[in-house]
Amino acid sequence: MLKISIPNNFIPERKYAVDVVFNDFLGIPYEVEISKEVDYKITLDGNKTLVIKDGFFTKLNENDNYINEKYLPQVNFAHLQYIPEDDLPVLYGEPKVIKENEQKIVCHVDVFSSIFFMLTRWEEIFDEDLDKHGRVKAANSVSYKNNFLHRPVVNEYVEFLFNVLKSLNPAIGRKDKSYKLYLTHDIDHIEKWGSPKKAIVSSLSLILKKKQYQNGVVNLLDYFLTKLKVKKDPYNNFSWIMGLAEDIGEKSHFYFMSGGNTNFDTNYNIRTEKFKKIIHEIVKRKHIVGFHPSYNTFNDLETWSLELKRLKDSTSLSIDEGRQHYLRFSVKNTWAILEKNEMKVDSTLNYAEKEGFRCGTGDEYTLFDVINRKKLNLKERPLIFMDANHLPSYQPDIDTNLSIEKIESLISVSQKYNMDFTVLFHNSIFHNQVLNFTRIYKVILSKSKNTRSNGG
Prior knowledge:
The protein is of the alpha/beta class.
């Protein structure tokens, strides 16, 4: 068992950083003690030691609020021994590792503060340059500005740390882990039209506003054919989605709404037989039902809780995972709301306009509340790609082939680090004609199936 001593200031933060590394990521038993020293010290069998120089918290007074723009990291890229890539983004500390002798290594890269920074998302609290939906922008993040949003830097730090420990003790082990695909689906609609009025309005919009005459006529014709049960509603594709997941031995996670009163909410009725039939099939086939809270719930505890209760009462299910509608999220409020409702997993954290590793990892990890300075029971399962990332409204030059190329790159790095890879495809997106999302989705499944068959 490792013995880890930590400095005696910012103890909740330091304990969390150590625990998330050695418990969540590495699975290595350890004991922690508080020290009067200013750096971290890890003692291995045979009294071999790794000193990790503190590059952040030691420089602050306990009464200081580290959630401040002046404490954002000044990133350097270092070519070091022990790192899994050609270089390593050094957020806090200095880019050097010194092996003093066979018994001791001193690492000047502050891996714990850097990991803490990425996982807690505290940089987002004071960011006031938000998009029209009140969301932080990828372009404002430290990772985007320094060109490592596409890299799981937290996993890189963990590998770096483990490699250093292994150089001191080659016998040290870690928990087994493999690449895992999570297929999630936010259900904003359970049917395309809902009423004759909506069908007519959408058809007229295609004809008069977008000048898509043929599409407008086809849209209206499809509505009537659906009502006559000649054709199936294109949004009622739950069985097809589940079948694709089952073909590669995975489960589909369906996140349903149960409220909302804005133009961005859909308000389908979860008490209808149509809805209950969908839920019945999902449960029968052993897939997962989750929660998709409405547009304004991300900082509204009362409404969030009411909608969750409504969904639980309607489905008679224990629901403990989900994602915020429109990915609306506040570090100050959203995780605390989920924690109070005893949710187990949130999967909101992806930037709306850009795919990648907003949290520096794709792996599920335990959260920390930087406002109340405490570790939570709630876990984050970061969202790495969602279909809307690649809509032309966010990435104007995107096409199906480029979308696949970008996603394959993300899958490749996720497989390299035996990491979780969570994707979001709305059930309604497969009907979208802008990109071939069915082809894109099947590429993801194929790449993941190959990994499973190869024992990855």
